[in-house]
Design brief:
This protein has 135 residues and is an all-alpha fold. It has one domain. The chain is built from six helices and no strands. Helix 1 packs across helix 4 and helix 2 runs antiparallel to helix 3. The longest helix is centred in the N-terminal third of the chain and has 35 residues. The termini are far apart.
């Protein structure tokens, strides 16, 4: 009886370890996807822009400390994407972002998003003016 319980316990432990490894692989591939989309470049650019205020003598320490905040940020973002996409879908997205077209999209994504947000803000103000006119 003890042997059967030990075997069952062993199987449960091995299964849990395999599931944890699968989850880790999913998270790592999701983080890779996020970096491929240009998020990493955007974060680096933001660190550089914010770091412009830092005196030259402190820039290295600032950069090191600021970059240390990136892994937890990627973890949070990965969790968000892992809720919205399956592991197979993330894998397909990684494959896409490794194509020439995917790389082009990633390189232009931030600029396009910023411009689209400005269009959206202008449109929102226009619609607000229409709403005020009909008040």
């Amino acid at each position: 009886m003890k042997k059967v319980l030990l075997v069952c316990l062993f199987i449960v432990v091995i299964s849990a370890q395999a599931q944890a490894q699968e989850e880790t692989n999913f998270k790592n591939e999701t983080i890779e996807f996020l970096k491929l989309t240009g998020a990493g470049d955007a974060f680096e650019k933001a660190i550089g822009q914010i770091g412009a205020m830092v005196p030259e003598v402190n820039k290295e320490a600032f950069s090191k400390e600021a970059r240390a905040t990136l892994p937890p940020l990627y973890e949070k973002m990965a969790a968000l994407y892992m809720e919205a996409f399956t592991q197979d879908e993330i894998h397909e997205l990684v494959d896409f972002y490794n194509t020439d077209l995917g790389k082009k999209l990633a390189s232009k994504q931030l600029e396009l998003t910023q411009k689209a947000m400005m269009f959206g803000q202008s449109w929102g103000m226009e619609v607000q003016g229409i709403a005020q006119k009909h008040n």
